[in-house]
Amino acid sequence: MRMVDLSFIRKMWTRIQEDEVPALAAQLAYFLLLSLFPLLIFLFSFISYLPLTDQDFISFIGSYFPGETAAFIESNLTDVMGKDFTLLSFGAVATLWTASKGIDAVVRSFNKAYRVKETRSYLKERMMSLVATIAMIFVFILALVLPVFGKHIGEITFSHFGLKSEFLEVWNTLRWLISFSVLFLVFTNLYWIGPNKKLTCISVVPGALFSTVGWVTASWLFSFYVENYGQYAALYGKIAGVIILLLWLYLTAYIIILGGEVNAYFSEKQEDC
């Protein structure tokens, strides 16, 4: 088993060098930065149509982003909250095109991992990116709505049996499971429909699982480092929030691309058999 593990690590290291993963991660981080705020604004514009409050959305952001990064994003979104949402809603629809550029960068990295060229037409590729972006939006909206209704239903049900305190303990665990499941679903869809290669949903599970666990772990470690050891505020001053966000997006991009490389590795291994 150890030889297999070492062989896998060596193969992955070779793929990282050949496919220039660090450079691709830097490119992807740039497009993710361009896509992040349009995507969040689009999500935020939906709140007025859902039984949610602004605080629900802010809490949602805090559960997916490291502490310093979440604070930076929240402060910028607060400025948006006071604007005219009639105009913002129309503008948010237009930002879908910008948000989907991040998906385009992901697709290019996946094609490189699978050693395939993009043969889909420009229109088909853009439509696929838009569909993937919209699918991600609905998944995140579902992640917003489920905890709100789930908590209320659970409190009512458990209160009837006098077990409200026990439910709250269970709910704290369920919140993490919901967040993990949402991330896994998003990564699975990306790895499935992204590459210009016919894949089964099951075949992309290893990469999706790797990225989900890796992203949650890396984000927690990064947040711990920034809060306890990072001196970005002293070094960069007012733009420290931007630097931290870029570093976290680069880390995210690296993990997403590595997940694609993991899937491509197992796909090639299966074809050789």
TrEMBL record:
Pfam families referenced in this protein's UniProt entry, alphabetically: Virul_fac_BrkB (PF03631)
| The entry's keywords | Cell membrane, Membrane, Transmembrane, Transmembrane helix
* Positions of transmembrane segments: 21-47, 85-107, 128-150, 170-192, 199-222, 234-257
Q: What is this protein called?
A: YihY/virulence factor BrkB family protein
Q: Report the domain of life of the source organism.
A: Bacteria
Q: Does the keyword DNA repair apply?
A: no
Q: Which InterPro entries does the record associate with it?
A: Virul_fac_BrkB (IPR017039)
Cellular component GO terms held in the UniProt record: plasma membrane
Coarse class of the primary localization is: membrane
- Specify the protein's topology with respect to the membrane: Multi-pass membrane protein
Q: Where in the cell is it found?
A: Cell membrane
> What is the originating organism of this protein?
Mesobacillus zeae
